[in-house]
Amino acid sequence: NGKSVLLVEKDDLASHTSSASTKLIHGGLRYLEYYEFRLVREALIEREVLLQSAAHIIWPMRFVLPHNPEDRPAWLVRLGLFLYDHLGGRKRLPGTRSLDLSTAPEGAPIKRAYRKAFEYSDCWVDDARLVVLNALDARDRGARVLTRTACSAIRRRDGLWSIEMTDTRTGAKTEARARCVVNTAGPWVNDVIGRIGGLNSSRSVRLVKGSHIVVPKFWEGRQAYLVQNPDKRVIFINPYQNDLALIGTTDIPYEGRPEDVAADDNEIAYLLKSVNRYFKQQLTSDDIVHSFSGVRPLYDDNAENPSAVTRDYIFEVDAADGQAPLLSVFGGKITTFRKLSEHALERLKPFFPKMGPAWTAKAHLPGGDMAEADFDLFLGELKARYRWLPSDLAKHYARLFGTRTHALLAGATSLDDLGPAFGPLFRECEARFLIENEWALTADDILDRRTKHGLHMTQAERQAFTHWLDRQQAAA
């Protein structure tokens, strides 16, 4: 919007909350029970906007909700789904339908005690890549992005902000000056405010832990499932990485350091019990191939039940006596990140009257500029252009990089040109591309956040890749 921007990120991009979501762009069906109509409407509208902007990392998914009259009456579920279909001006996604689980193929894995279900639409997202693509887009438009750089001190000086930054790898300190600071530190938002002398806030975030488990996929079809629990929480069971299933999430008050969060045995037992209540195949802890946990920084609205805490966002502007402004963001959810950003800039407009108008609603994220936002059409064109590229590898590159795949494959005319393989679908050229273009520095950056190759590699393969990466950095 015409301003000079510096992003200071303490760790890697998306290394905490933003990569620990259930990986959905959704309105939040259950938020309707808490009368969060404004938030749900905004999220449903954003669902359509984001689907158009990044079809390679965001795509439609159908969710099957088996009905259990012990949890919610059918009329209430129908009403919620009716509102869900019509509240946000749905255009591209199909609407709700009822299913007879005794005859519909979606009912095959469900226990016979459940005879009826509802099916509705939402969208899947690769959350960590969503963060990286936003950072890439910002950099391409002139922003400076510093990862592994801690904001160690902030103070007002001579009408500006003075920001002291520390490189977390070397300890080297640098300083920047700014007319405005935007505090989007998530679980650390109050910590950042506390580093500013003489400043405190009446607002705060409530830390709520959400954990997930990953197991081998145990049903046929591309549909996901949403199951209800007696405690009124819902659990998503989503297809993940083709042959896996992602199950989550929990909602537990958290009081420790956000950096130390991890799924505990009680949460894992809760998730397994939720799935086993509905599905014929009974899962045990031995089925779990991976688990992860994150801390949601929800705006503290004093709700007793963690599940009832608002997922909406709140802004606070500190600019007393004409001083340089500090804008702090409390709460929010990944689906509404773009709209939150527009609203944030509106709050800063009085301080930057020459700021340009909002423009992102019609823009594409890097790699998303494909014809008619049609991923299948783009994939077909990609396979036709690179006939030597195996089909599964072409789809992997298309999903990860979209139209940026052409830059990844520049100069390559055969599979050998992509370099040696570190694991299934993981070639050296991809690792180099991520290092050179996407701030990737460590094996975790590449295997767990920029990609999900780590889920498909043996421990020996991970170690071999780590050794390769260490050699590359030593030679640099």
Give a structural overview.
This protein has 476 residues and is an alpha+beta fold. The protein contains 12 helices and 20 strands. The chain has helices spanning 37-53, 74-86, 127-140, 189-194, 265-276, 337-348, 375-385, 391-401, 405-408, 428-437, 443-450, 459-475; strands spanning 6-8, 24-25, 58-66, 97-100, 116-125, 144-146, 149-157, 160-167, 173-178, 181-183, 205-216, 224-228, 234-240, 244-248, 252-253, 290-299, 313-318, 326-331, 421-423, 426-427. Strands 2, 3, 4, 5, 11, 12, 13, 14, 15 and 16 form a 10-stranded mixed sheet that branches. Helix 7 packs across helix 8 (391-401). The mean pLDDT is 94.
